[in-house]
């Protein structure tokens, strides 16, 4: 087993899954790859566990006995930025897109390839952790249109200095835009810049994340001006971005 230096030792993975057979298989898989799995079979049990301890990532089944995974995802996103992978037997585009729109960072369909699942978990954990070498070189906050984004703490503040909640994927994409302001970026380039080449379920999940970012940085806008769509090209971040050296 090869450990990734960018992933915390024994990363705690909370699996919300009511199928005992799948839970047993995931337990063995996650432990084999150096993770520390926690398993619960209902939303109520998940709520209790999250009150007692912190987790690094949540794998969330859509079909649960007391509350559906979509509702849980929406609720979690109101209070937390913990990475979420939706795990479901539903493979239709509408289900996947809905999960991403509600704040999931990734979406895996059963039956899944074990190696692919582990790769997705590692990629998401890497994106959600602070990388010391990267922070040392690129930790300076940036501002645009009164907004302030802080790579070191992975936080975003609006012009009134109110902290805005972003998912891990949303933050990575917005940060990539800020570091490449004025440059037309294709979906493939955004995946590479924001995700290190580790795409979500499909390339067009980028569109879902960008839609959510737009709604957060231009609430109530009738047309988007900060992130513009370039026909046959991708997207361009239009505002002037300035790097600031002083601490907030």
From TrEMBL:
InterPro entries: CheY-like_superfamily, OmpR/PhoB-type_DNA-bd, Sig_transdc_resp-reg_C-effctor, Sig_transdc_resp-reg_receiver, WalR-like, WH-like_DNA-bd_sf
GO BP term, pick one: regulation of DNA-templated transcription
Modified positions (4-aspartylphosphate) in chain numbering: 61
Cellular component GO terms held in the UniProt record: cytosol; protein-DNA complex
Domain annotation OmpR/PhoB-type: ranges: 139-239
Coiled-coil intervals, chain numbering: none
Record carries keyword Transmembrane: no
DNA-binding region listed in the record: 139-239
MF annotations from Gene Ontology: phosphorelay response regulator activity; transcription cis-regulatory region binding
Family annotation (Pfam families): Response_reg, Trans_reg_C
Keywords: DNA-binding, Phosphoprotein, Transcription, Transcription regulation, Two-component regulatory system
Occurrences of domain Response regulatory (ranges): 12-125
PANTHER family: DNA-BINDING DUAL TRANSCRIPTIONAL REGULATOR OMPR, REGULATOR OF RPOS
Protein name per the record: Putative two-component response transcriptional regulator
Source species: Bradyrhizobium oligotrophicum S58
Taxonomic path: Bacteria, Pseudomonadati, Pseudomonadota, Alphaproteobacteria, Hyphomicrobiales
């Amino acid at each position: 087993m090869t450990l990734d230096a960018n992933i915390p030792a024994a990363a705690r993975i909370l699996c919300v899954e009511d199928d005992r057979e799948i839970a047993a298989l995931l337990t063995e898989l996650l432990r084999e790859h150096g993770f520390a799995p926690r398993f619960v079979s209902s939303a109520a049990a998940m709520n209790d566990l999250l009150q007692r301890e912190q987790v690094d990532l949540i794998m969330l089944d859509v079909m649960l006995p007391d509350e559906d995974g979509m509702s849980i995802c929406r609720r979690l996103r109101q209070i937390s930025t913990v990475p979420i992978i939706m795990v479901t037997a539903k493979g239709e585009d509408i289900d996947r897109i809905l999960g991403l729109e509600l704040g999931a960072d990734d979406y895996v369909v059963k039956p899944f390839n074990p190696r692919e699942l582990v790769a997705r978990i590692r990629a998401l954990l890497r994106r959600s952790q602070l990388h010391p070498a990267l922070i040392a070189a690129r930790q300076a906050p940036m501002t645009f249109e009164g907004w302030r984004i802080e790579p070191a703490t992975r936080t975003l503040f609006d012009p009134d200095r109110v902290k805005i909640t972003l998912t891990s994927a949303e933050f990575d994409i917005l940060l990539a835009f800020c570091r490449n302001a004025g440059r037309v970026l294709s979906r493939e380039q955004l995946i590479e810049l924001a995700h290190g080449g580790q795409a979500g379920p499909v390339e067009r999940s980028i569109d879902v994340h960008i839609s959510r970012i737009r709604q957060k940085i231009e609430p109530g806008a009738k047309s988007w001006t900060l992130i513009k769509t370039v026909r046959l090209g991708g997207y361009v971040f239009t505002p002037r971005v300035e790097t600031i050296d002083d601490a907030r």
